[in-house]
């Protein structure tokens, strides 16, 4: 994430107080980012052993559903701190776009299919089947939207900052993006569509042997895994071969997936289709999460007392949570794959409450030693993501085997403790 400038120095007090701010780096930002990395590692590696923390097959909230919004939320906070002062908007814009492009391309390399994961010692990807979107790509999209919003849509004076007046265009953009998302999600007509599933594997030669499945839709506003407009947009714009090949909805009972991860021919046609949880349409509301984090960052950048910061954050979090729960009450499902608006609101509120807790713990009361591991992980978050979360470290260990490639410690752990 972007670096930021330290807060202006003020007179230090001997005891922590809710009305004093020390002139140091805001440790809770690093701690929260470290929490994001830790949770991602936990659900990626522990989710197979403890399914209760893994991604929900479709609707619902589990621990894994909070990871992506937390990343986007802290990206928004960091963006507000990085662009607290923008002397040259054009220069700031060019640097922002370049940084986002670099992050996007890194995501394509790590999650585009080039690395084959923990069950294969091979690497490489057919460019006609490369996955274009993923975790880092989504963060880069959210970051560039929030950064450009901060650079060009902020109207504040040097004398004072009024959060509603200074950042009203931020909220207009967030509401507009949400409205466009809702219009496309509920308004687009989804016709019947077909999916051709090849029987070839990454180890076999190209083959014409494939099964053709037809998904019956002809609906509008469907939020199920088969006929939602988000999947249709991705299939039309990105191409079906460039989507995530093993969507989590295959764990639904309807798909009857085997222990080896295969979908039977008798399962519904949509169970065989790819679906990208980081798709184009859901990236709209994901960007709104980043804009929400941006507003928390404004409070951190411009208010100089702990009590004022915590009051603003707490009130904002409660409002987001109440609105999100209201949408649940009227029947809108909480869905991470579609990144529904109530999912965005509830997870953003959860991120805000969690950030308040860490801010109170380490920045107000100074219990930094309790979170030093998370702080270190937050400072080195991108490096850890590349090495651990993208399986590079695991694959490096897996490369050492005895006699045959399958006889390695990673394979031993998977076969004994992971049931897939």
From TrEMBL:
The lineage's top-level taxon is Eukaryota
Would I find Transferase among this entry's keywords?
Answer: yes
GO MF assignments: transferase activity
This protein's UniProt keywords: Membrane, Transferase, Transmembrane, Transmembrane helix
Signal peptide as annotated in the record: none
Q: Where are the transmembrane segments?
A: 31-54, 66-84, 96-115, 135-155, 167-189, 280-301, 313-334, 340-362
Q: What is this protein called?
A: Heparan-alpha-glucosaminide N-acetyltransferase-like isoform X1
Record organism: Tripterygium wilfordii
Lineage summary: Eukaryota, Viridiplantae, Streptophyta, Embryophyta, Tracheophyta
């Amino acid at each position: 994430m972007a670096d930021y400038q330290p807060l202006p120095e003020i007179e230090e007090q001997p005891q922590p107080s809710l009305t004093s701010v020390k002139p140091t780096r805001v440790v809770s930002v690093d701690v929260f980012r470290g929490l994001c990395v830790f949770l991602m590692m936990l659900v990626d590696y522990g989710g197979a052993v403890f399914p209760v923390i893994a991604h929900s097959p479709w609707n619902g909230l589990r621990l894994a559903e909070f990871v992506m919004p937390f990343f986007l939320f802290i990206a928004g906070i960091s963006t507000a701190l990085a662009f607290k002062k923008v002397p040259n908007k054009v220069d700031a814009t060019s640097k922002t776009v370049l940084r986002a492009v670099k992050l996007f391309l890194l995501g394509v390399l790590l999650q585009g299919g080039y690395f084959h994961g923990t069950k294969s010692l091979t690497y490489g990807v057919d460019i006609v089947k490369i996955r274009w979107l993923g975790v880092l790509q989504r963060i880069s999209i959210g970051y560039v939207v929030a950064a450009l919003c901060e650079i060009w849509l902020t109207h504040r004076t040097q004398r004072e900052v009024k959060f509603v007046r200074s950042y009203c265009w931020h909220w207009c953009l967030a509401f507009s993006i949400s409205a466009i998302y809702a219009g496309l999600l509920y308004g687009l007509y989804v016709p019947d569509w077909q999916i051709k599933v090849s029987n070839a594997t990454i180890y076999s030669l190209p083959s014409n042997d494939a099964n053709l499945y037809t998904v019956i839709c002809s609906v509008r506003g469907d939020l199920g895994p088969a006929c939602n407009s988000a999947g249709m947009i991705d299939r039309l714009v990105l191409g079906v071969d460039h989507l995530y090949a093993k969507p989590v909805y295959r764990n639904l009972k309807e798909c009857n997936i085997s222990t080896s991860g295969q979908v039977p021919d008798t399962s519904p046609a949509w169970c065989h289709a790819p679906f990208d949880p980081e798709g184009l349409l859901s990236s709209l509301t994901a960007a709104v999460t980043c804009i929400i984090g941006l507003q928390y960052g404004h409070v951190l950048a411009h208010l100089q007392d702990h009590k004022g910061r915590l009051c603003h954050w707490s009130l904002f979090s409660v409002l987001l949570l109440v609105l999100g729960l209201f949408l649940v009450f009227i029947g809108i499902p909480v869905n991470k794959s579609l990144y529904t608006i109530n999912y965005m609101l509830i997870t953003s509120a959860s991120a805000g409450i969690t950030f308040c807790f860490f801010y109170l713990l380490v920045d107000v009361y100074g219990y930094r030693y309790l979170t030093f591991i998370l702080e270190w992980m937050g400072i080195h978050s991108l490096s850890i993501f590349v090495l651990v979360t993208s399986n590079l470290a695991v694959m490096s260990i897996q490369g050492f085997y005895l006699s045959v490639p399958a006889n390695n410690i990673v394979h031993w752990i998977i076969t004994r403790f992971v049931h897939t």
